[in-house]
Amino acid sequence: MLSVALLLFSLSIPAVYCGSHSLQYRIALVSVPGYDVPQYSVVMYIDGLQYGRYNSDTQCAQALAPSLNALSEHIENQTKYAQEYEVWQRHRLNFLMGFFNKSKGDTHIYQRKCACELHEDGTIGGYEEIAFDGKEFFIFDKERVVYVPVTQEAVMVSHLWNIRYDPTDSKVYVENDCIENLKLYLPIISTDLEKKVPPKVKVSSSESESGTKLHCRVYGFYPRDVEVKWIKNGRDEIHSEEAAQILPNPDGTYQIRVSVGVTPEEGATYSCHIDHSSLETPLVVPFEPSKRSILYIIIPVSAALLLLLLLFLRAQQFKKGDPFVLLAFERETQSEQPVPIV
Ligand SMILES: *[C@@H]1O[C@H](CO)[C@@H](O)[C@H](O)[C@H]1NC(C)=O
Ligand SMILES: *[C@@H]1O[C@H](CO)[C@@H](O)[C@H](O)[C@H]1NC(C)=O
């Protein structure tokens, strides 16, 4: 239910038309039973692409492009602002849950989408939408400076909402702070569009009960789009059962780890193939199985040591004369005795 709600609300990415730019913040606050504090997150988009984020775990505003990190003082200010904003949004979720008699024993979600637009002719625009439990609830009318209810439920609470949460603040934010930020970011990120940082790659393997796994870690690359796959014998792609996620690094670059399960075969070769816009040709990094042979030594040796230890313990008990162990031991030793050749 929760993921459906998130999906519904995130479908409409603002159209980016030529010469016009937008800065959008998507906020989600999710109260999950069993957690005291609802999870809060903000993602910032410029012209529809992710450029920043903040969440209640890190409590830090983070730029997702290397160039934006040059704005360290601005990012510090954004962190402070985001922390205050988080508290205000928590009030709003609590207020809605209280008003609609929603139980804390269920999952509830409050989402807010807020954007400003800078048009080619210099005019500005912007909008704000609020959703509760996956349904659109209020739309902000910037001209009349009022939150307009969208559903029947929202009509019930809209009067109180407009009194408690002054819509003037939203107008000021969209028309001033948001536009200022957009004007600050645009010239900086335009250099990112040409900037490319090639990936670094590490391949490794791990053994578990379910078998051997090969891992390909690709990191430190920019921009975000990358293709990583495991190839067997130079031609067959091995499909990964886990969906690999591209994760942002604090320095604005990205990383991903693609793991596949394999059954070791005599003579088979495995390699990780990486394609990224910074590379002229795809990178091919072979997996060298030499490191695995250490495991082949460690496992039998530790098994042998364990066996010796068990035998020693059994011998100790045997000395103490535990009748049951004694019997068992005797029976075993008897059966192990070679049949005398007459
Ligand atoms: C950060 O905030 C302080 C205090 O509000 C202000 O004086 C300063 O100009 C801001 N710096 C930037 C880069 O926005
Ligand atoms: C919430 O509960 C109170 C008291 O039980 C009731 O008066 C009120 O109408 C309820 N509100 C909603 C939105 O159902």
Describe the structure.
- This protein is of the alpha+beta class.
- It has helices at residues 2-10, 72-99, 152-164, 167-192, 292-320, 323-336; strands at 21-31, 39-46, 49-55, 62-63, 108-118, 124-132, 135-141, 146-149, 200-208, 211-221, 226-232, 236-238, 247-248, 254-262, 270-276, 283-286.
- Strand 3 (49-55) and strand 4 form a beta hairpin.
- The model is unreliable at 1-18 and 321-342 (pLDDT under 50).
- One 2-acetamido-2-deoxy-beta-D-glucopyranose is lined by residues 73-74, 77.
Mean pLDDT: 82
Determine Rg (CA atoms, Å): 30 Å
Beta-strand level of the residues, as a percent range? Answer: 25-35%
Tell me the total number of β-strands.
16
Instruction: Point out poorly predicted stretches.
Output: 1-18, 321-342
- In order across it, which strands form the biggest sheet? 4-3-2-1-5-6-7-8
Helix vs. strand class? alpha+beta
Shape: extended
The SSE string, one letter per element, is HEEEEHEEEEHHEEEEEEEEHH
Distance between the ends: 79 Å
The percent of residues in helical segments reads 25-40%
Subcellular location: Cell membrane
Family: Belongs to the MHC class I family.
GO biological process, one term: immune response
Pfam families: C1-set, MHC_I
Please provide a brief summary of the model:
This protein is α+β, with helices and mostly antiparallel strands. It has helices at residues 2-10, 72-99, 152-164, 167-192, 292-320, 323-336, and strands at residues 21-31, 39-46, 49-55, 62-63, 108-118, 124-132, 135-141, 146-149, 200-208, 211-221, 226-232, 236-238, 247-248, 254-262, 270-276, 283-286. β11 and β12 (236-238) form a beta hairpin.
